[in-house]
Design brief:
Layout: H1 2-12, H2 19-30, E1 38-40, E2 43-46, E3 51-57, E4 64-68, E5 74-77, E6 80-81, E7 88-93, E8 97-102, E9 111-118, E10 122-132, E11 139-144, E12 146-147, E13 151-161, E14 166-171, E15 174-176, E16 179-185, E17 188-198, E18 207-213, E19 221-227, E20 230-239, E21 245-246, E22 251-260, E23 266-270, E24 279-282, E25 285-288, E26 297-305, E27 308-316, E28 318-319, H3 346-352, H4 368-399, H5 405-410
Parallel strand pairs: 2-10, 12-20, 21-28
Antiparallel strand pairs: 1-3, 3-8, 4-5, 4-9, 5-6, 7-8, 9-10, 11-13, 13-17, 14-15, 14-18, 16-17, 18-19, 20-22, 22-25, 23-26, 24-25, 26-27
This protein binds 2-acetamido-2-deoxy-beta-D-glucopyranose (6 copies).
Organism: Gymnodraco acuticeps
Pfam family, one: C2-set_2
Main location: membrane
């Protein structure tokens, strides 16, 4: 503490005292070897930056000023370069201030720079140079792969910073606590933060980030974004064609597959049978043009990856193209194939009114009210037509014309 106080005194002295008194006080003060005729300032600079090392002189009398590096090698001897290192430049030498600059500062330049004034008693002051190394954007390493139902272990790493960077894992704006470890590698630090989180299939693609903060970044953060890659067994679903299949129709089935990794091969097969010759398979689609009843059967779509396998089936029933008795909805299930009772749908109603299907009979219960309404409507229309015909017929007879009788009779 004393050197600081006395140096402050030295600096403050010139103003309030007359030159004679000042010299006297100085002589008195400088009788103690701690009197500061040289004053240096501490400097902090970013790695790669330029440091300014200044040395303030008091009552400079023309004596020799020597500047030394932390290894006590002389950089400048009274203004003349002594050490062959072009990064050091003397930029100022006045009776009050000596200033040198050091460009492309590295952590090895850290330490105390000596500023020595060779007077009767040798005075020196030390300027401490500190180098700050901000972290690069951290990297993320997967320590344990993420498989659904398991845990993923991720490490965020910042290999080099000074002082040590602070790492923080974030997900959806919330911090995930991690296990932090720090290693001292000769002046710089390597920091890592490791998290373990349980993962499900829904977490696939979830966004995480690791933020590095550091005093030299002045509030900003270096952020590494990471997307979770969660492995999971496939799921398979056959998208059935709408409606029922008849002879001569073409069938097109699509197998929609999920999974991570996405299964590469999709296998189509027919249970207890070989695939029909006319079947065309291209990846997830399966097609048969011009169906016949021989195509009846259960078709299977299967997929697998390293984490499991899955299958779905579709039961094809090809109906006669003239008479339809029942409709079996194509229900893809993972149960053994059973023929479920008919569920009436709007679709079957459409078929029952199809004029091209005279033989079509739809056995439904909920269709009855519609049938009644239809019948009443038909009766109404019929009545209106009858009335019209009778009216026209009467008017024609009244006029005594017979020319239009034939077409009118054709309505009967
Ligand atoms: C300069 O740094 C050194 C070492 O860190 C410290 O002891 C000294 O008090 C500092 N001086 C000033 C003026 O900050
Ligand atoms: C040291 O350098 C200063 C400034 O250039 C000069 O005034 C002074 O005379 C020099 N001292 C010696 C002993 O050469
Ligand atoms: C700065 O110093 C480093 C080594 O400390 C060196 O690799 C780099 O080339 C230097 N850069 C310049 C511009 O001199
Ligand atoms: C396949 O054949 C086996 C034995 O012949 C029989 O038990 C099984 O029900 C058949 N599966 C289908 C879907 O026809
Ligand atoms: C195919 O299925 C339809 C509907 O169940 C049935 O009427 C027909 O007899 C079946 N044909 C063959 C060859 O199994
Ligand atoms: C009905 O199917 C047969 C073959 O099964 C075909 O020859 C005939 O043309 C089809 N009729 C209609 C109206 O599609």
């Amino acid at each position: 503490m004393r050197p600081v106080r006395s140096s402050v005194l030295c600096r403050l002295l010139p103003t309030p005292f007359s030159p004679a008194l000042r010299s006297l006080v100085l002589v008195l003060l400088c009788l103690t070897p701690r009197c500061q005729a040289v004053q240096a300032e501490n400097v902090t600079v970013l790695e790669g930056g330029t440091a300014q090392i200044s040395c303030r002189l008091q009552n400079y009398d023309g004596s020799i000023v020597v500047i030394q590096n932390p290894r006590r090698q002389t950089l400048f001897f009274n203004g003349t370069r002594a050490l062959k290192d072009d990064r050091f430049q003397m930029v100022l030498f006045t009776p009050r201030l000596v200033r040198i600059t050091l460009t492309n500062v590295s952590v090895s330049d850290e330490g105390g720079y000596f500023c020595q004034l060779y007077t009767d008693a040798t005075h020196h002051q030390v300027a401490t140079l500190s180098v700050s190394v901000p972290p690069e954007t951290p990297t993320v390493e997967v320590k344990q792969e993420a498989v659904e139902g398991g845990e993923v272990e991720l490490s965020c790493m910042s290999p080099r910073s000074k002082p040590a960077a602070t790492l923080r894992w974030m997900r959806n704006g919330r911090a995930i606590p991690g296990v932090v470890s720090q290693q001292d590698n000769a002046k710089t630090f390597s920091v890592s933060s490791t998290i373990r989180i349980p993962v499900e299939r829904k977490d696939n693609g979830a966004a995480l980030s690791c933020e590095a903060s550091h005093p030299a970044l002045s509030g900003q953060k270096r952020i590494r974004h990471y997307r979770l890659d969660v492995y999971f067994a496939p799921t398979v679903r056959i998208v059935p064609p709408p409606g029922i299949m008849r002879e001569g129709d073409s069938l097109s089935l699509t197998c929609s597959v999920t999974g991570n990794p996405l299964p590469r091969n999709i296998q189509w097969s027919k249970i207890n049978d070989t695939l029909p010759e006319r079947a065309e398979i291209s990846g997830p689609t399966f097609q048969i043009s011009r169906l016949s009843q021989l195509h009846n059967g259960t078709y299977l779509c299967q997929a697998q990856n390293n984490f499991g396998r899955a299958a779905d089936h579709y039961t094809l029933l090809v109906y006669d193209n003239v008479s339809v008795t029942t409709t079996v909805p194509p229900t893809p299930t993972t149960q053994p194939i059973t023929s479920h009772p008919v569920t009436p749908t709007l679709l079957t109603l459409v078929f029952s009114f199809d004029p091209k299907e005279p033989g079509a009979v739809v056995e439904t219960h909920s269709a009855v009210p519609y049938a009644v309404i239809g019948g009443v409507l038909a009766l109404l229309v019929f009545t209106v037509i009858c009335v019209l015909i009778v009216t026209i017929w009467c008017s024609v007879r009244q006029k005594g014309s017979y020319r239009t009788r034939e077409p009118i009779l054709a309505w009967y």
